[in-house]
Amino acid sequence: MLLITCPHCGPRMGSEFVWQGEPKPRPDPETATPAEWRSYLYEEDNRSGWVEERWMHRTGCRAYLVIERHTLTHEIRSVRLLGGG
Q1: 55, burial (CB in 10 Å: exposed 0-12, middle 13-18, buried 19+)
Q2: pTM
Q3: Domain of 53, in residue numbers
Q4: What is the spatial distance between Cα 59 and Cα 78, in angstroms, rounded to a whole number?
Q5: How many separate domains does the chain show?
Q6: Given a cut of 80, is residue 84 above it in pLDDT?
Q7: 78 has which bridge partners?
Q8: In this structure, what CATH number is given to the domain that contains residue 11?
Q9: Three-class DSSP category at 15
Q10: pLDDT in tens, 41-60
Q11: CB contact at 8 A, 55 and 78
């Protein structure tokens, strides 16, 4: 079971949250090629180890979070609001 501590709601089960991928820079809409858009929209690094991921507290406060999680052990090292607010 994944336990995520929401900054607003406290500890909650992982089933309350929706994984939204790893934060990555958005391509410039004016200059991006179709290949750059495809990579941005559909390709993930899928690394083993510590990664930062975007999650949304779907059934709680609906906040967007950045969670630092180990992909093999699911240990969570940090949780913060997206944008630092």
Answers
A1: buried
A2: 0.80
A3: 3-84
A4: 20
A5: 1
A6: no
A7: 68
A8: 3.30.2270.10
A9: helix
A10: 998 888 899 999 999 999 99
A11: no
- 11 vs 7: CA distance, rounded Å: 9
Contacts of 36 (CB under 8 A, 6+ apart): 27
Residue 4 C-beta-side C-alpha neighbours within 13 Å: 31
Structure tokens at 66: 């950045």
- One-letter amino acid at 12 equals R
Overall residue count recorded for the chain in this entry: 85
In this structure, what DSSP letter does residue 19 have?
A: E
Q: Please, is 39 exposed, middle or buried when counting C-beta atoms within 10 Å of its C-beta (0-12, 13-18, 19+)?
A: middle
Residue type, 74: H
